[in-house]
Amino acid sequence: MSAPTSGAAEPRRFAPAERYAELAALGDVELGARMLAAAPTHEGRSPERLRAWARTAIAVGTEMAGDADAAGSGAEARVAESTGGLRRDEVLLAEYRRRARGGTVVLYTDALDYARTVAEAAGWAADFPREAVRAAALDHECAHRLLHGPRGRDLRRRLDHTAAAVGRLRVRGHVVGADEIAAHAYAHRRGRMRRSPLLLTAAVAATLAHAGPPAPAAPASVPSPGGPA
Amino acid sequence: MTAFAILAVMAVGVGLMLTRRLPTAFALVLLSVAIALIAGAPLTGDEGSVTGTVLQEGAPMLASTMVAILLGSWLGTLMSETGIASTLVRKIVEFGGERPSVVAVGVFAVAIMCGSITGSAPAAMLAGVVGIPAMIAVGVPPVVAAGTVLVGIAAGLPLELINWQFLSDAIGVPVSTVQHFQLRMFPIAVVGGLAYILIEMRRRGTRHTWAVRVPAGGADGGSGPEAGGGPDAEGGHGAFTRAARRRERRGDAPWYALLTPVVPIALALGLEIPIVPSLLTGLVFALVTAVRWREMASTALRSLYRSFDVAAPPIVLFIAIGMLLAAVNLPGAVEALSPVVTAISPSSPLLFVAVFAVLVPLCLYRGPMNIFGLGAGVAGVLISGGIYPPPAVLGLMASYGQVLGVSDPTSTQTVWSAQYAGVRPERSMLSTIPYTWAVAIAGLVLTVWLYLL
Ligand SMILES: [Zn+2]
């Protein structure tokens, strides 16, 4: 476990308001494509290719949620709450640990509070109410659990990425990060949220980008949320 | 009496390195001078003097190793710049993606190749810059992701030409003897590494998160000028332009260029070509296969100059180790230390394994059995005192090398890998040490079987 920078929910500076507005103007596909662009192994891929993958992953996640709504399936994993989600170089909102004998979901309450503070700073308090952010975290990890099964194979088939081809023989490849976008879309639909959690994730990333590699936060150095930077 | 004074000075030296009051290289130089003076060496003179023998002759004693390090670092830098290493990792992730254990084993294999080309943190970066976040993204727990790269480069160590040259120079055995032992150590290290990955993956399971990471800008790219890259978090508006820039810098390398890491070892083992020409051939192969004709000369020169940054710390260390070896080999030091070391060194094969197995932790935290530090001096004493045949000392130090290469929380590759994965180096040590300790014990048994029976 890396040491949390501080116990407080706002150890970092926030991004300028224009930055949030810019993100809010983007569609889910674009947000997803940008998330993919930042994922390892996608350094050389074209934006068009990444957008197509993001679109597919969002569709799969949304369908999964529709089916889950119909089936009324609940979470089967144990849920625990913890602090320590605000780390030196990471904001960890939730985590699903899958073992042979069942899984555990851990919600990091300090990080969820932080995300909620970012949403307020961006002026999206109504889009991301506290309970909705928490539910989104649970749904996100539920999606990861589902993606371990046939849903994951479905996603892989529909992404249809060729890892290698020799003549007519093709080997279908794994797309790193597509499951992450599907999980975001799943939570979006399951929680009947007005905006996708993709936007919230992008906003949290923007605050980290703005603050740089987070210095150990001295409380005095934290400007008021949303203020000019 | 002289012996105890020398041992006391060594203990002070370990203390200085351990508490980080002094960089290891500087501490070793001071230690060399102090040992020489205590051993009664004159300040000046041709035979066995402090300035003549320890400083002047000691400094270039490991010169062959230094040249090998520079070439290995050059090849490593080139593999990073041309995208050879990252392409290897990307292919593995694409093929094995939904099975985290498969991805981890694949990155392990890449890390073995990287570890056979160059050492310590540059090797870890070569495999880990893309490999560690990719493993985490497919569900490998961060501590296992860091450990996988570390056990990989350590398993590559027995095949590393630089390491052959170093052990040959430092212990005073022919390179062929080092090969003889290391080729038998290699499968042990591979089995140990695989055991680590498969058992720890089973024990810890997989992990998926909702998380936002600050990209490790300072760690990206392995080395060189842009390594101190600015704090630009991913997922922002610059993501595509940055990706494009990176693509320019290291796009996909062609498949035949991916054979680069096996070229030097294949030449050295298959055709018995010496170390420097083997590494040079690997360099030419990488340039010809992965760099456009017009850019070849400029890429070669730029990556060579960049590799000096990478090679500087080990070269400085090896200058100091040369001096230390010269000091402990002074007649006065040998005479004083031999009886003491003979008295405490285990003589029977069984005791050899048992005692040195218990002493394994002494190679951690820059301890006295670290071959890249005071351990070189200890090895020198064990040999000059005639306590064990040189190949046995080689086996001992190579076995310890497996522990300190992976688990030592103060070694640069451990610090880099752990922090890049977001875990503390001490956690990485606790996770790997049961496995590396077992590998070391197996190495000690191998040593006894080959050289002491
Ligand atoms: Zn996720």
Automatic annotation (TrEMBL), chain B:
The keyword Isomerase does not apply. The chain crosses the membrane at residues 25-45, 66-89, 101-127, 134-157, 181-199, 253-269, 275-293, 314-334, 340-364, 371-388, 433-452. Residues 218-238 have a biased composition (Gly residues). Keywords: Membrane, Transmembrane, Transmembrane helix. It comes from the Bacteria. Residues 215-238 are annotated as: Disordered. This is Transporter.
